[in-house]
Amino acid sequence: MGMFTRAGAALGALGLVASLALAGCGGDPEQARFVGGSDPTASATPAEPTAVNGPPLPVTPADGSTNRPVSAEIAATLPDGAKVSAVTLTAADGKQVEGRLRADGSSWVPSTPLKYGTRYSATVTATAADGGTREGRSTFTTMAKPKSMIGSGLYLFDDKEYGVAMPVVVEFSPGIPKKDRAAVQKRMFVQTDPPQPGAWHWIDGGTQAYYRAPEYWKPGTTLSVRIALAGIPLSNGKYGNVDRVATAKIGRAFEMKVDNATKRMTVYEDGQVVRTLPVSLGKKKTPSSSGTMVVMEKKESTVFDTRDDPDPDNRYVTEIDFAQRLTWGGEYIHAAPWSEHVQGRQNVSHGCVNVSTANARWLFGRTKIGDPIIVTGTERRLAAGNGWTAWSLSWSEFVKGSALPVPEGGAGSPF
Questions:
Q1: Least enclosed by CB within 10 Å: which of 9, 175, 348, 409?
Q2: Most distant pair of Cα atoms in the chain: their distance
Q3: What's the rounded mean pLDDT across residues 155-171?
Q4: What is the pTM of this model?
Q5: Would you state the pLDDT for residue 321?
Q6: What is the domain extent for residue 295?
Q7: 15: in domain
Q8: What is the rounded distance in angstroms from the CA atom of residue 31 to the CA atom of residue 54?
Q9: pLDDT of residue 310
Q10: Do residues 143 and 69 touch, judged by C-beta distance below 8 A?
Q11: Catalytic residue among 25, 201, 334, 350, which?
Q12: Could you tell me the CATH number of the domain that includes residue 132?
């Protein structure tokens, strides 16, 4: 078991996240391309009504306002019973901004961040129940690019295929203050095809947020994600850095279940048992974590270097084949030819799931990032945030971590 700090992991996650950093085994722990349901290539503005009646609608941002964040959404104060029927937003250069109205009608969200230091003109048209229309206009200017921004990362890549337990994982550095999480969460859009409800859950410290459904994703699901942080103001004087967008696919159902009592891994594909493997888990001094984890990273060959571990008994440098990361603390599934003689009978690892070289090669060739592994019966419970732990909680516990109310069964698309 080696030492791997989450601080290092957070830094590695910033930007469109590249491969995750490796440490040793163990240690403590084209449906909706625009996320939220809109299509960036399609105009979100219906035809203008022919007649406009009544006084102007008050529009937000207010007419003549300056220094507006580039995350600004367009809204209007509506008469009772009226609904927004059209929104246009045009930059000073005459280019029209695409966007989509939220499902609750509360605001119109631009498909991409507004530009810094730019003047925009907005027009909102509302239609009453009797067919009459009202219109409001506003010209406002966005702020200059701020100097103090957070870092962020999205663990999802375009056109990649993931396992059924792949959560949408967003990282923030520094963490998002509690008072800001609801506003940030409103700017984190997820759409699934076919539709499946879901919810966000914040890890203590606000350095990570996970999105998942009540159950694993349906095989073949398309996940369309927009983490629209660019320019969002925070209470600590910082601003969101960029928007991150990805559309990915969920593959077949593949699941691994490890029982410490039998020291066996049972492998399921599409609900059917395809193989049972003997394993060796963590010895009592360095137990494996019990809980639902997901494969976060795969390395066909690597080196575990735990010479910085405070316990001299846990310091080693070892070449490892077919390594699949499960936790930030350094737990992996990997080939362990040195323990093959006790696999299925005795736990001797530093917290990892040891399998034979042949079985490790077989597993490595079949797993995807996001495939779940459930370990039961060990001396240690999986710690929240030690890996992508979105599935280590029941659904009722998970939704308690949302910064916004979650309807029974889960939240749907905001559009």
A1: 409
A2: 84
A3: 96
A4: 0.86
A5: 97
A6: 253-394
A7: no
A8: 39
A9: 72
A10: yes
A11: 334
A12: 2.60.40.3780
